[in-house]
Design goal:
614 residues, alpha/beta, Glutamine Phosphoribosylpyrophosphate, subunit 1, domain 1, Rossmann fold, 3 domains, six-stranded antiparallel beta sheet, 26 strands, binds 5-amino-5-deoxy-1-O-phosphono-D-mannitol
Length: 614
C-alpha cells in the first residue's frame, strides 16, 4: 500500500527520496510525489503512475543543484483510497500557506466532519483526499512550532495514520508520527537520518533503527531523533538492529522478485526450521511461543487469524493441530474476527499469521483477542512489525524480505512453522514419540523436497505454455489439498489476471460445475495423500463436462497421472508436509502463465504488498 520516506542529511534530497521510493514500489501504488526545500520554500512534484515518471518530472523541472542545502524532503507512493489515482490526489498535500507538506498512510475516518469545519473557516480543497484535510488542519494549528501543530491536529483525528511532515519555516527537521500505520526511523549515521514506512528503505543508510509505537511522534534531525507522545511527553524507544542485507532487495539473476523468492524457498525453509527440531524428544523447540508445558496442556482451542495467503496457511494449520495435538482448531478471516464478537478466554490460543505483520485486519483481530484475555501469539516474517511487537510472543519465519506482492516463500515458511507448533503442542498432549519423530524428520526434509520441485521449473514453464489463453480456471482439492487449491488459484488470479477460483473438490457439484464448459482448465491437486481417491471421482465429474485437467500429482503415481491431461509432478511426502511441494509447483505454474501473458508480475494492478487499511 502507500509508502513513506523522509530524508534529512548531507546529500541531495530528491535523489535519496527517489531511491527510497523505488524500494517502496513493491508495496503496490498508483501515484507518487515528493516535497523538498527550495530556497526557503517548499517545492512539490507529483505524478500519477510510476516512480520513474516522477523521476523524469523531477529531472525536467528541478535541474541543477538547487536542493543541495538544506538536503531535506519527504516522499510518498500512494495506493488510492479516497479519490482516484491522479497527480492532484497524489501526496504530498500542502496546508493553505503552502509552507507545510504532508505525506500520509492510513485513513482519516472523520475526514468529512473535519472538512466541513475547515470549509466553514474558508478553506478550499484541491484534491479528493482525506490527507489534504489533515495538511490544512496542521496549518491551522501552526504558530511557529511544527511539532506542536502536528500533535494538535492529530488530536482531532479519528482513524489511522503514519505521517511525515515538512515545514518551510523549520528546515532542520521532519516530523513523523504513527497510529496504526508503521513508521520506522533509521538513526543518524554521519549526519543523516531517514524515516520510512518500511525498514527495507533504510537498509542502505543504516542498520540501526527505531520503530515508533502507536501515538508516538518524533522530531527527526540530521544528527538525531527525539521521540515524544502526542501530548509532548518524551518517550524512550529502543534502537534495534535491522539484520537485513541491502542485496535482499535486488533481483539478482531473476527477471522478477516472485521468481527469485520461489527459488529462495529451500533456504528460507531451512532458516525457518533451523534449531527448532529436537529429534531426541521428537518435538519442536519454539521458545518464542512463550508457553509453559502446563499452559499448553490447558489450552482448549487454537484460533488462527489471517488474510489471503496467510489465511490459507492457517487452513493447513487447522488440520495439523487437530491431527497432531488433538485440539479443536479453526482459522478465521481476520477482517471479520472482531465484528463477530468471538468467544475467547485464556484457554484459547490465538495465532495471528501475517507475513508483513502490518495487515490492519489481522492487527485488529490481535487486539480483540488480547482484550478478551486469550493467549495471543504471532507468526510474522517482518521482524519488528507491529503485530510481532504487539503480541509480544511469537515465532518469526526468518524467510528473508518478501518483495513480490504475491506471497510465496512466506506461505511455505508459515506452513512449516505451523507444523512445528502443532508438533510441539501434540507432544505435550497425546502425540506418540514415534509419530512425532516421523513428522520431525519429514519437516527436516522439506527444503530438499522443495529443491526437487524447483528442478522442474523448465518443465513447469513448458506446461504453462498450454494454459496462457483463456479467462477462467478452476482449482480443486480435498482435505489438506483444499487450501493448496485455494492458494494456487489466488496465485494465478493475482498475477496473471485469469479468473481462477479454488473450491473444495466435493463442492463443485453444488453449483460451480454449472460454469464448466469444454476446454475450461481444472487444476486438480491430487497428491498421494488421504482423500486422493475421492478427488479422482470429482475429476471424473469435470472430465465428463469436457474440462481440461491439469493434475498436481505424486511422482510415480501412474494411475493418477493417467487421469490427467497434463501434470505437474511433486515428490512423495508425509501427508502434512505434502502441501508444501504441491504449492511450490503451483507458484511456478502461476508465475510462468503470468510471464507468458506479459503481466507486471511483481506489482499486479490494484494490489498492495501489505494491506494497512481496513
Ligand atoms: O502480510 P500478510 O501475510 O498479513 O498479508 C495478507 C495478504 O494480504 C497477503 O497474503 C495477500 O493475499 C498476498 N498478496 C497473496 O499473494
Amino acid at each position: 500500500m502507500c509508502g513513506i520516506i523522509g530524508y534529512i542529511g548531507k546529500s541531495e534530497a530528491p535523489a535519496n527520496l527517489l531511491k527510497g521510493l523505488k524500494k517502496l514500489e513493491y508495496r503496490g501504488y498508483d501515484s507518487a510525489g515528493m516535497a523538498v526545500f527550495d530556497n526557503g520554500r517548499l517545492a512539490v512534484a507529483k505524478t500519477s503512475g510510476k516512480v520513474s515518471a516522477l523521476a523524469e518530472k523531477v529531472r525536467a523541472e528541478w535541474p541543477g543543484e538547487r536542493f543541495a542545502r538544506p538536503p531535506v524532503g519527504i516522499a510518498h507512493t500512494r495506493w488510492a483510497t479516497h479519490g482516484s489515482p491522479t497527480s492532484l490526489n497524489a501526496h504530498p498535500h500542502l496546508d493553505a500557506s503552502g509552507g507545510i507538506a504532508l505525506v500520509h498512510n492510513g485513513i482519516i475516518e472523520n475526514y468529512r466532519a473535519l472538512r466541513a469545519r475547515l470549509e466553514a473557516k474558508g478553506h478550499g480543497f484541491l484534491s479528493e483526499t482525506d490527507t489534504e484535510i489533515l495538511a490544512r488542519l496542521i496549518g491551522e494549528f501552526y504558530s511557529g512550532d511544527i511539532f506542536d501543530a502536528v500533535c494538535g491536529a492529530l488530536h482531532q483525528v479519528e482513524g489511522t495514520f503514519g505521517i511525515a511532515v515538512l515545514c518551510a519555516q523549520e528546515p532542520d527537521r521532519i516530523i513523523v508520527a504513527r497510529r496504526g500505520s508503521p513508521i520506522v526511523i533509521g538513526v543518524g549515521v554521519d549526519g543523516e537520518c531517514v524515516a520510512a514506512s518500511d525498514a527495507s528503505v533504510l537498509v542502505e543508510h543504516t542498520q540501526r533503527v527505531i520503530y515508533l509505537d502507536d501515538n508516538d511522534a518524533a522530531i527527526v534531525r540530521a544528527d538525531g531523533v527525539e521521540i515524544r507522545d502526542l501530548d509532548n511527553v518524551p518517550v524512550t524507544r529502543a534502537v534495534v538492529g535491522l539484520d537485513m542485507a541491502p542485496s535482499a532487495a535486488e533481483k539478482g539473476r531473476f527477471a522478477h522478485f516472485m521468481h527469485k523468492e520461489i527459488h529462495e524457498q529451500p533456504e528460507a525453509l531451512a532458516n525457518a526450521i533451523r534449531g527448532r527440531l529436537d529429534f531426541t524428544r521428537a518435538t519442536a523447540v519454539l521458545s518464542g511461543m512463550g508457553t509453559s508445558p502446563r499452559e499448553l496442556s490447558e489450552l482448549e482451542r487454537v484460533v488462527m487469524v489471517g488474510c489471503g495467503t496467510s489465511l490459507h496457511a492457517g487452513m493447513v494449520g487447522e488440520y495439523a493441530f487437530e491431527d497432531l495435538a488433538d485440539i479443536h482448531a479453526e482459522v478465521q478471516q481476520a477482517a471479520e474476527f472482531r465484528y463477530r464478537n468471538p468467544i475467547l478466554d485464556r484457554r484459547a490460543f490465538v495465532v495471528a499469521i501475517s507475513q508483513s505483520g502490518e495487515t490492519a485486519d489481522t492487527l485488529a483481530a490481535v487486539r480483540e483477542a488480547q482484550q478478551k484475555g486469550a493467549f495471543v501469539m504471532s507468526l510474522c516474517n517482518v521482524v519488528g512489525s507491529t503485530i510481532a511487537r504487539e503480541t509480544g510472543r511469537g515465532v518469526y519465519l526468518h524467510a528473508g524480505p518478501e518483495i513480490s506482492v504475491a506471497s510465496t516463500k512466506a506461505f511455505t515458511s508459515q506452513v512449516v512453522v505451523l507444523l512445528m507448533m502443532a508438533l510441539k503442542l501434540g507432544r505435550g498432549r497425546r502425540l506418540s514419540r514415534e509419530d512425532g519423530l516421523a513428522l520431525a524428520r519429514a519437516i527436516d526434509g522439506v527444503p530438499a523436497l522443495v529443491s526437487r520441485v524447483l528442478e522442474a521449473d523448465p518443465a513447469i514453464a513448458a506446461v504453462a505454455e498450454r494454459f496462457v489463453e483463456g479467462e477462467h480456471a478452476f482449482y480443486i482439492g480435498r482435505g489438506l489439498m483444499h487450501p493448496v487449491a485455494l492458494e494456487g488459484a489466488l496465485k494465478l488470479k493475482e498475477i496473471s489476471y485469469i479468473h481462477a477460483e479454488g473450491y473444495h473438490a466435493a463442492e463443485l457439484k453444488h453449483g460451480p460445475i454449472a460454469l464448466l464448459a469444454p476446454g475450461v482448465p481444472v487444476v486438480a491437486v491430487a497428491c498421494d495423500v488421504p482423500g486422493k481417491d475421492k478427488t479422482l471421482g470429482n475429476i471424473e465429474e469435470c472430465r465428463a463436462r469436457g474440462a481440461r485437467i491439469l493434475g498436481v500429482v505424486t511422482e510415480g503415481d501412474a494411475d493418477t497421472i493417467a487421469c490427467m491431461d497434463s501434470v505437474l509432478t511433486v515428490p512423495p511426502a508425509h501427508p502434512l508436509v505434502a502441501t508444501i511441494p504441491a504449492v511450490v509447483a503451483l507458484q511456478l505454474f502461476a508465475y510462468h502463465v503470468a510471464r507468458l501473458r506479459g503481466c507486471p508480475i511483481d506489482q499486479p494492478r490494484n494490489l498492495a504488498k501489505s494491506v494497512t487499511v481496513e
